[in-house]
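Re: the 369-residue chain
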Amino acid sequence: MISRIDQDHSRFREIVRGKIRENLRKYISRGDFVTQQGKDRVSIPMPQIDIPRFVHGDGGGSGVGQGDGEPGDPIDGAPQEGQGAGEAGQGEGEKALEVDVTLQELAAILGEELGLPRIEPKGSDSLSTQKDRYTSLRTTGPESLRSFRATFKRALRRQIASGTYDPRNPTIVPIREDRRYRSWRTEPKPHTNAVIIYMMDVSGSMGDEQKEIVRIESFWIDTWLRSQYEGIESRYIVHDATAREVDRDTFFRTRESGGTMISSAYRLCAELIEKDFDPSAWNIYAFHFSDGDNWSVDDTSVCKKILRETLVPACNQFGYGQVESPYGSGQFIKDLREAFGDEEKLVTSEIKGKDDIMDSIRDFLKGGR
């Protein structure tokens, strides 16, 4: 029975997985479809799922392929011409099923659908954590670590050897000398750390729609990268003419009215890396989102210098996503492509609307860096 239940559950999960993959573009473009449920799970709505199954009939009556009848005769119970199945607007509508999936499962579906390669982290020998492994038994220890299996095996062996064991009354009574406790040893465990540094233009030309696109895209980037690393941090920088580090909630809610100086964000990002994240030990990902407006040609030159000398060499990948805005010039992505056209570690992507988010995620992550 348990095996049958496991098989049915496994089959149901495969159906759910297929439905999510089939509708992935819709889930990505509609960020409100996916809601966070705790730290490691999300809830996704989908149409009611019925698993096909055979049912036994009563063995009587007539139907298609049964009993007497001539070609063209109506099928019993089927509506005839001019007959309806009920009054319009009175029936129940289609129900949606809320399905919980782990972020790990969601990342796997995203990777399969977009054809994303797994990332080979750098610095795996530079950082380590300590992990306790229970590898042996000993005769002393706290009761919380007593091994009942080993204790009773020892008691059974002793009673058999002493002739006190009665198979007709198989009572086993451990004594103090029979007790065995689990023992551990501490082993260093290689640990690869990663950091994602998000930067966003919050000047007046970046409206709520543009920020919503950034929020949705950063969720899916986060989901994929967290599936590739055991330890990962996220840092957030907002900028207009000046830049500052903020928390996640402030990152998506802040809006300023000033102009835009992109170099302020790139300088702060470089300072964060120098202070907190040694590139030889950390896998560093930086993503900058803007509408492409910058203060001046001179500031764009400063940005290119910081990228070339500091950020691109330090990062596994630097991604620039340009979100279309009716107020932005869109020039910055052209300048980056002209200056870094052959640089694999600097990836640019144009995001005209929510329907382009999935393609933008593929642009950023398909390199497997």
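Residues 91-95 have pLDDT under 50 and may be disordered.
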